[in-house]
Amino acid sequence: MNTIGWVGIRSQLAFAWHCARKTFNFSKRNYPTGAFRVLTFHSVTDQQMPRFEQLIAYLKDSCGIISPAEVEQRLSRPVSATACETRVPCLLTFDDGFHLDYRAAQTILNHHKITALFFICPQLISTSKRASQHEMDLFAVRIGLRHVSESLRPMSWEDAEELLYSGHTIGAHTLTHSRVTTLSEPERTHEIVNSAIMLEHRLGVRTPWFAYPYGNLESIDDAALRIIASHYRFCCSGVRGINSSATHPLAILREHIDLNAPFHLQTSLVLGAADWAYREQRRRLSALVCAAKPN
Asked: What are phi and psi of 173, to 5 degrees?
């Protein structure tokens, strides 16, 4: 099925779910203790900025937006058996390290006093304000694009430093956006561990956050999770679902939000419209985390 057809079907399903939610008032149900969602974005373009700001306004009014530090606190709380949350706030994350995402932070997030989490690939980050075309093409290959235009160039180290200065958090996304399951053990160790070392060396901070590229279950395994666990406290996936204080820190669920999709589809995903479709993937991710634990 082509992408346009799938987006159309998803939009129709989300709209039906949106109407049902309004009819039966699903939003009033209780949620697990410490419930939260993690949203992820890729390259917020100039054309998408109004849509992004519209979504931010919705999140602030309907759900609430929390910081990486608040998520860390929620994942450190003792687990309660009582479901008592009535709102599910969202953490905003950005993958790959685009300069456009730095701009979104500067123009929108900072204005709203929102702090977010940026996962970057340090070896792909330009050391100057303007990346060369060769660097941009390398960036494109690594993130699965044929070509990266000037508008999609990677952020610079100066951009990353300004993000930190503004209160945002930087996380590791491997050195070069590699799918770790395709690498040998020495190669995956190099990609996972040295990304943290390089970030600490260049930015002067040690990050507890990691997100593996591509985010699906084909891109992670128990061996990689063991390496991740030895250098990071938190690991984000691309598996959809709601998180809570009971979520394993190495199996954090995330909702990818396409800013080109209809607004009702975006908000329906925020409210859990796709959770049911990822039940088996969540089970398999939990099994991988259990398998990754030392004997």
From this structure: -135, 35
DSSP per-residue string spanning 55-76 = HHHHHHHHT-B--HHHHHHHHH
The DSSP call for residue 259 is T
Q: What is the DSSP string of 170-226?
A: EEE--SS---GGGS-HHHHHHHHHHHHHHHHHHHS----EEE-TT-SGGG--HHHHH
* pLDDT reported for residue 107: 95
Which letter does DSSP use for residue 151 in this model? G
What is the C-alpha to C-alpha distance for residues 216 and 182, in angstroms, rounded to an integer? 13
Alpha helices (H) in the chain, listed in sequence order: 3-24, 49-62, 68-76, 99-104, 133-143, 157-165, 185-203, 222-229, 263-270, 279-292
Say whether pTM exceeds 0.70. yes
Tell me how far apart the alpha carbons of residues 176 and 124 are, in angstroms, rounded to a whole number.
Answer: 6
Please report the domains of the chain, with CATH numbers, ordered by start residue. 31-292 (3.20.20.370)
In the prediction, which pLDDT does 87 show? Answer: 85
